[in-house]
Amino acid sequence: MRRSLSVPLAGLLLALVAAPALAQPPTTPVPGPRDPNQPPASAPNGPQPLAHAVGDAGTGLSVVRLGPQGVPTNTILPGLSEQLPKQSVTEFGLGLASAQVNTEAFLSTERVVTQANPFGFAVAGRSPQSPGTLVQTAIPDNPQPTNGGLPIPETPLAKLKLLNGSVHARWDEKVGPCVSPLATAKTSLAGLEVLSALPAEVPLPAKTSLISIPDAFEASSVVKLVDLPGSKNKAVESTSTMRAVSVELAGGIKIDVATPPTLTATATGDEATSKITYTAPVLKVSQNGKDLGTLDAAHPTLDIPLLLDLVVIKLQIAGLNEKKAAFTGTGFSGFQLGATARMLDVQVLPTDKLKLPNLPTALAQISLGEQIVRAAAPQGGVICGTSQPPQTTVPQQPGAPVAAPPRGAPPLAYTNAAYQSIPLFWTGTALLLAGVVIFAALPARGRSRS
What we know:
By secondary structure, this protein is mainly beta. Helix content is 8%, strand content 41%. The N terminus is likely disordered.
């Protein structure tokens, strides 16, 4: 199933990578009546899942930023633009995978959403719709995943050989998200070239593209419920995983991925046991067969001059940024946490040594392996069960008082008729009697005479 969503994954990855938002994933707001005297929306009928869980994971194979941190972030809140990190002039993402779970979503189709997006772009932080997305949503349940090739965009910023996607969204009618697998999205490509058409002002020797990935490159985003130690309840776990073999840069630079990165957010509902787990990548860097060093958690940056120290490529890993906070909402209260990370940042012409104000951090920045995870769970963990079904009413004897509805039984759907049944009955009766009187009072016409 291929279709475009009004809020594409590109917007999620490109907007949240600066700082992980801790609010629940955006969903359709609960619509209220236009007239305050109208009845409220219908209440759920029948047994309902007791599980409350919110989590999402986003992973991008590559994100190209031109003029990173060069445009202020606009917001409708006064004074907040100065506190938020700046946006890039232009951003372009490839191979984006997203898995989202939100039991509090008003629309049933938004409770589990999985997407594999071939590309997405944003200008000054604004991201339009992106066609060609592979999507699966639940409810209803999907016993099998949806797999398929994704359309490859034609762009001078990047070239892809083969891009595939896989999405799987599950939901159980009785226990809701307490099903395995729950939400999974994957993207994979067999070859990638980034910045294959650079401006003439950036002379990079030996190669026509800045970055190329000749081998398989995979991104995976998973949201699931896991066992909570010492309890029968569950925890919400969001995981972003990258898989890569090697990366080649202009100037004969080769980066071998010894350890791929994995970013996980686990929410138990309690700050003491909720955690962010990050396996930082280990990258071995060489140039024309000569060892230049290793990028890992202890050595996260490496500058490589390409042309008389005028053209510099800056390599940086990790960039882990995490946030945690307790919350109290209308659906449930508990603890939430989120984090972002990147496997490798490649900056062309970094401007940190120029010491000039209001400059972008670099002419261009290419991020390989964008990772975002968020998770929220109620206090005590996620309960996997259902509410008690409504009790069957016993027929009343004639003249006996009407029994009150049992406690805990879900209310019936609210309609205008439920609020105005008596007035409608008498109005209809009056109109019927008036019609009979008018018909009887009219003279008969067209009757045949014998």
